[in-house]
Write a structure and sequence with these properties.
Helix content: 40-55%
Number of helices: 9
Distance between the termini: 58 Å
Strand content: 15-25%
Structural class: alpha/beta
Largest sheet: 7 strands, parallel
């Protein structure tokens, strides 16, 4: 006697991918670039964003969707930096999907943005599995996490379009080798852009801002 097996995860991902693609088409038509920013907790996502807002707010309209299980601390930090911000509470879920992202976009009440950043939930596994409909994916690898993270969490580095190596100022105090990190990242995603920065001091963030400027321009051309 056979038993029918239904792969629920496959069905969920299929539905999510359809909605994600529709979201991408919508953003393209609206000339809005959506960057999905992922990382482990404590990597410096919000500090990196405040630095980028300082560099870009005079040349483009920026919105940020802050995703957390609870709290609105980061949304207030983003507003203070000079960008529009909304807080997304995931109700305990460790990632955002395309439907949640769409709800967030609609919550901006038709404000026209050049750049929207989705600061995903701090996690190196779940966010990489779900397409949010973003124009590009970025992930932050912080020095204290170690240069072996690409070997342990391959999907995160495979779906990213750029890897930001943050907290370079503390590299002398950790067993972190930048060349080894580059090699490990390239192993998972050959040819990917890798940008070392220190969000705390601002070092290297000009190069990250240039990367965003180029991507926004290409998205709108």
């Amino acid at each position: 006697m056979s038993v029918k097996i239904v792969d629920l995860k496959a069905n969920v991902l299929d539905d999510n991918n359809i909605l994600a693609e529709n979201t991408r088409k919508r953003l393209k038509e609206e000339k809005t670039f959506l960057l999905n920013l992922m990382s482990a907790p404590g990597s410096g996502k919000t500090t990196t964003l405040t630095r980028l807002i300082e560099l870009l707010k005079d040349e483009m309209k920026i919105g940020v969707m802050e995703a957390d299980i609870d709290s609105d601390v980061d949304a207030h930090r983003i507003k203070a930096a000079g960008a529009e911000s909304i807080q997304l509470h995931t109700g305990g879920m460790c990632h955002l999907d395309a439907d949640m992202t769409t709800q967030g976009l609609d919550s901006f009440d038709s404000i026209k943005f050049d750049l929207i950043v989705l600061e995903n939930v701090g996690n190196l596994v779940c966010p990489a599995e779900f397409d949010t409909g973003a124009s590009k994916n970025a992930m932050i690898l912080s020095v204290p996490e170690g240069d072996d993270k690409p070997l342990k969490y391959p999907l995160m580095f495979q779906v990213a379009d750029v890897v930001i190596i943050n907290k370079t100022d503390v590299a002398p105090y950790f067993d972190f080798d930048l060349d080894r990190a580059r090699k490990n990242i390239e192993m998972r995603h050959p040819g990917i852009d890798i940008i070392p920065i220190c969000a705390k001091t601002g070092e290297g963030t000009d190069k990250l801002a240039d990367w965003i400027r180029t991507e926004v321009k290409n998205h709108n051309s």
